[in-house]
Amino acid sequence: MELLLGIDLGTSGTKTVLFDPTGKPLASCTVEYPLYQPQNGWAEQDPQDWWNAVQETVRAVLAKSGAKAEDVKGVGISGQMHGLVMLDGDGKVLRKSILWCDGRTGKQCDEITSILQEKLIAITANPALTGFTAGKILWVRENEPDLYDKCRHILLPKDYIRYKLTGEFATEVSDASGMNLLDVPNRCWSDEVLSALGIDKSLLGRMYESCEVTGVVSQAAAEATGLAAGTPVVGGAGDNAAAAVGTAVVETGRAFTTLGTSGVIFAHADSVTIDPKGRVHTFCSAVPGKWTVMSCTLSAGLSLQWFRNQFCGPERETAANIGKDVYELLTAAAERSPIGSNRLIWLPYLMGERSPLLDSDARAAFIGLSAMHTKGDMVRAVMEGVTYSQRQNLDVFREMGVPILDMAACGGGAKSPFWRKLLADLYGCPVKTIASDQGPALGVAILAGVGAGIYKSVEEGCRVAVQTGAVQQPDAAAGKAYEPFYQLYCQLYPALKDSFHKLAAL
């Protein structure tokens, strides 16, 4: 029997899934762990918690499935991106990992931008952002110099798990793309950036493609997890790159939209395409020799969740009494409102905005609110506003020459047929679901299958293991009706930008 293991190291927990080569999940287990916030705006986790979760979930899926350890032919690891893990010369963790959502490194990011200027985006394909890893390295060097002097290895979160499984200090191109240290066009560490920032290249892991074998499970790791010693472990991928493989976004024209807490559009690109304004990110793809373009808006599903929590107490109570999801009731109310929500527009900047505005001072607003508006109008305005924000990023992709012909929808928001229709109508292209909801875990299992020789390529693995669900076709008439509202939406942030900044300074 040939089986593949996908480990998805998330921020809230680690999910491990065992698959057969057709992509069928045989067993799954998730273990959660805490997030530490020692100061406002900081976010850290203990890498030992991750390793404990991996050990527990791997043992659990092997036990649940009844699979033999030797049946697992390859292991792939997906992970939350950008986190900083620092080890000493003995491989021991020096401090808690600083995570992707930690905002302490504004000063260091300004310094990186000042030192490298236009070279930063030309080489790393991205501006210096507080979420990325380089700023975190500089922050530790500046604020914890004794600890920094002891550091001998710098790893990303999933690559720490690789080290624990194999003893190898390694990474791969998709995850490393989010560090501000990788030469993204050439898929290698940038000597120029590292030299300019004074970071010793020997601290960083050996670079691999995502489907290459990076090492094998050690005897110690085999005893800890129940896997067989010698099992190949491939490069794996950052969470969104892994999700791209798990949704078959591995060929020209394909993309996915995730409507989770944040909103992401992730598109495949056969060649390097960089936005010189830094509005969206360009990363190396998990497909060898390919790239991806990615946007990230901060308050997608969060916008609707916030509205639900603050204003929908009666609906929540009703939903509980009748055994329905409250979002079904809210969506039904939204559907009774017309396109444009009776001339009401939502700007979804509850947490500031990343793509395409890059403005942490931007704030959310209802524009056009009047006494005539109902709660249904407001719910629809929120869903439309979030969809406008995704369309705005999609327009940047199209401006860059990245074709979008086939769109998959993922995340909690994608479970709503109404929201998928909004996406299709505003994008002007079909929006489909994926039969499996395993996402990143399936993606890295496919990568493991390539490394183990079960599939000849990532593309072949996706054709075998990823099945499409329902497809929503765009309604041209609805798209035309949305267009004036969308164009007005695009004009509102520039008109309010100065006011946002003045408000933040009060």
The CATH architecture of the largest domain comes to 2-Layer Sandwich
CATH level 1 class label of the largest domain = Alpha Beta
Number of strands: 24
Strand content: 15-25%
Integer-rounded radius of gyration: 23 Å
| Number of helices, counting only DSSP H or I runs of 4 residues or more | 18
- Which whole number gives the mean pLDDT? 96
Main β sheet profile: 7 strands, mixed
How many structurally independent domains?
2
- Indicate the percent of residues in helices: 40-55%
**Could you name the CATH topology of the largest domain?**
Nucleotidyltransferase, domain 5
Spatial order of strands in the largest sheet: 18-19-17-16-22-23-24
Which structural class matches the secondary elements?
alpha+beta
The shape is globular
Distance between the termini: 65 Å
Give start-end ranges of low-pLDDT stretches. none
CATH evolutionary superfamily of the largest domain: ATPase, nucleotide binding domain
Gist?
The chain has 506 residues and is α+β, with helices and mostly antiparallel strands. It folds into 2 domains: 3-247, 2-Layer Sandwich (Nucleotidyltransferase, domain 5), CATH 3.30.420; 301-395 and 475-505, ATPase, nucleotide binding domain (Nucleotidyltransferase, domain 5), CATH 3.30.420.
